[in-house]
């Protein structure tokens, strides 16, 4: 068992639960959001986005997702400039693959520039993703 993921078998299916370390990282991230995360949370909180409920800095297995809508298994990531780096882009792709295949989430990445300078566009992208079929 790793220090980031705990494996549980309830007899019916295998589940993965975030460790205390991952939960603490999520807690710390909630205390210190980026400007883009603050702006995005203002759009998403309290069912403001077509009545869908979002959570912020959600632990999912060994990862922390910026925003999740569990109802439709959607993750929204606010991507800053670091995500343009080739190494980070590769890590993001590997992470996304695991979140999609193991946890069955869809991932929507929105650049911070769009969130901060074109909030209507960012919100439109999220609304489109919320209403897409789960298998797309």
Summarize the structure.
With 136 residues, this protein is an alpha+beta fold. 41% of the residues lie in helices and 26% in strands. It is globular.
Please tell me about this protein's structure.
The chain has 136 residues and is an alpha+beta fold. 41% of the residues lie in helices and 26% in strands. It has one domain: VSR Endonuclease (Endonuclease, Chain A), CATH 3.40.960.10. The strands form two sheets. Strands 3-4-5-6 form a four-stranded mixed β-sheet, sandwiched between helices. Strands 1-2 form a two-stranded antiparallel ribbon. The N terminus is likely disordered.
Overall number of domains: 1
Structural class: alpha+beta
**Main beta sheet strand tally, sense and closure:** 4 strands, mixed
Computed over alpha carbons, the radius of gyration is: 15 Å
Tags for this entry?
single chain, 136 residues, alpha+beta, Endonuclease, Chain A, 4-stranded mixed sheet, two-stranded antiparallel ribbon, 41% helix, globular, disordered N terminus
Write the layout of secondary structure elements.
Elements: E1 5-9, E2 14-18, H1 20-31, H2 35-44, E3 55-60, E4 63-69, E5 74-79, H3 86-101, E6 106-111, H4 112-117, H5 119-130
Parallel strand pairs: 5-6
Antiparallel strand pairs: 1-2, 3-4, 4-5
């Amino acid at each position: 068992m790793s220090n980031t993921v705990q494996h549980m078998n309830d007899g019916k299916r295998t589940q993965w639960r975030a460790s205390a370390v991952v939960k603490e990282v999520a807690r710390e991230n909630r205390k210190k959001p980026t400007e883009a995360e603050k702006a995005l949370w203002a759009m998403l909180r309290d069912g403001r986005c077509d009545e869908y409920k979002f959570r912020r800095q959600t632990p999912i297995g060994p990862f922390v997702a910026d925003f999740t809508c569990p109802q439709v298994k959607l993750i929204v990531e606010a991507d800053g400039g670091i995500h343009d780096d080739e190494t980070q882009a590769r890590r993001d792709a590997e992470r996304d693959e695991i979140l999609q295949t193991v946890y069955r989430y869809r991932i929507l990445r929105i650049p911070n520039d769009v969130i901060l300078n074109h909030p209507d566009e960012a919100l439109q992208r999220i609304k489109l993703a919320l209403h897409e079929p789960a298998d797309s």
